[in-house]
From TrEMBL:
GO terms for biological process: methylation. It catalyses: a 3-(all-trans-polyprenyl)benzene-1,2-diol + S-adenosyl-L-methionine = a 2-methoxy-6-(all-trans-polyprenyl)phenol + S-adenosyl-L-homocysteine + H(+); a 3-demethylubiquinol + S-adenosyl-L-methionine = a ubiquinol + S-adenosyl-L-homocysteine + H(+). Belongs to the methyltransferase superfamily. UbiG/COQ3 family. O-methyltransferase that catalyzes the 2 O-methylation steps in the ubiquinone biosynthetic pathway. InterPro entries: SAM-dependent_MTases_sf, UbiG_MeTrfase. This is Ubiquinone biosynthesis O-methyltransferase.
Amino acid sequence: MTDTRTPNVDDAEIAKFSELAHKWWDKESEFKPLHQINPLRLGYIQEFSPLSGHQVIDVGCGGGILSEALSEQGATVTGIDLAEKSLKVAKLHLLESGNQVEYRCIAAEDMATQHPAQFDVVTCMELLEHVPSPDSVVQACAQLAKPGGWVFFSTISRNPKAYLQAILGAEYLLGLLPRGTHEYARFLKPSELSRMARHAGLEVVDVRGMGYNLLDQTYHLSNQTDVNYMMACRKANP
């Protein structure tokens, strides 16, 4: 059953990812970069929080690339997204992988209202730059986390270097992503995301960049946060 949507949805973004849904698990498709950075995302999360035996929610899970990796580490994982075609692919892939993930078509805000303070770990990766009101999603992620729980974000900073690399480079020159994947105005500077997190009652513990090596075409963690970056936050205990 599909849950009621909130206004914090961009139908064009949903349609964009729905058209590519069948390619989510093709590691040589437009989703190749997500497969390449997934070990970095997983390792970053594990730096701060154990996963085995913990309740984890993956907000904006898409086809389930990160959700399944979290499940493989022993977490009880819920993945939520509003792109129904992507969720269908995610569910079908479970039949192949044997992993266990509960997928739901529901907005983060609705999930937070229904299940507040339920999760030890909340992940929200590569989503904030695709929604009209990222602060609303940040607030929902904070609401979903248990007191003392961890919330992880990843997104793209907004500056000329990010425009050159994430849009002109990745989409137009190198063809790593389909053209039109990102909209520059929706990128968030680390300072802006930090402010949203603090306003939602989260403590920003760490900010780390992700760099790309053109020579060997690999991604790596970096102290440079001016393009792609991840943020680890912790929800305060009452």
